[in-house]
Each structure stands twice: as structure tokens, then as C-alpha cells.
Amino acid sequence: MKIEHIGLWTIDLERMKEFYETYFSAKSGALYHNPKKGFHSYFLTFDSGSRLELMHREDINKPNIESYGYAHLAVDVGDKQAVDNLVDKLKADGYALINGPRTTGDGYYEAVIEDPEGNLIELTTD
User: Fold this and answer.
1) H or E segment to which residue 118 belongs
2) CA 106: distance to chain centroid?
3) Helix (H, G, I), strand (E, B), or coil: what is residue 10?
């Protein structure tokens, strides 16, 4: 078994698509639109084959607070230098660094940043 994809509700679908394409080399499929439900989505595919579905519907509103459920998306970027380089680029472009880079107690080298809508992304390598 494998996880086929993870879905993420977004406020600004195009901005989020551009973010993941720019910083994570994701490749986007065509925009899907279901006019009956007012639903729009993009499937983004990463080099590893993993996929992220960015979804938008006008009636979906999510407060940016911690709660039970998914806490972060972890992306293995290759090595420590790649983590450091991506952190530097994201910070220079105005994205929030939440913590790190650091080596965690379980042996990962990681940093945590926020995407444009405040979702946490762990930039990691082991």
C-alpha cells in the first residue's frame, strides 16, 4: 500500500499552486472544476511520485489554529545543504521560518516553514 495523495483546502488556489511549483518543483495537472459544487482543484505531482491535491470551495473556511488532525507536510529535500538553501530562499522571499534548521532528537535535520496560508511544511533530510 501507499498513500495516493493528500488533499489540502486552500483560500487562494492559484497562489498555493505557484508556491509548490516554485519551491518544491511540483508539476501541476489541469484545473478541475465542478460547477455544481463550486469546487476547483489541482493535483500537484512531486519528483518522487507523491501528489498533493490543492482544493478550493467558497464555502470552506479554515481558521489558522492548531487542532487535532494533520500537523504538517514533511518534504525530504535531499541533504542538509538543500534544507539550508531552501530555508534561505524562502526567508528571503518573505515566508515565515517557524524553527530550525536543526537536528532533532530522532535524527532528522529539519526546518519548519509556513506556506502562504500558514500550513506547516517540514523541510527535512535524515
Assistant:
1) none
2) 22
3) coil
pTM, to two decimals: 0.88
- Predicted pLDDT at 21: 98
Residue 107 contacts residue 100 (beta carbons within 8 Å)? no
Q: Give the three-state DSSP class for 20.
A: helix
Residue at 118: amino acid letter: G
For residue 47, name the pLDDT band (cuts at 50, 70, 90): very high
27 three-state secondary structure:
strand
Question: Tell me: the pLDDT tens digits for 69-91?
Answer: 778 999 999 999 999 999 999 99
β-partners of residue 32 are 41
Contacts (Cβ under 8 Å, ≥6 apart) of 55:
7, 8, 9, 10, 13, 39, 40, 41
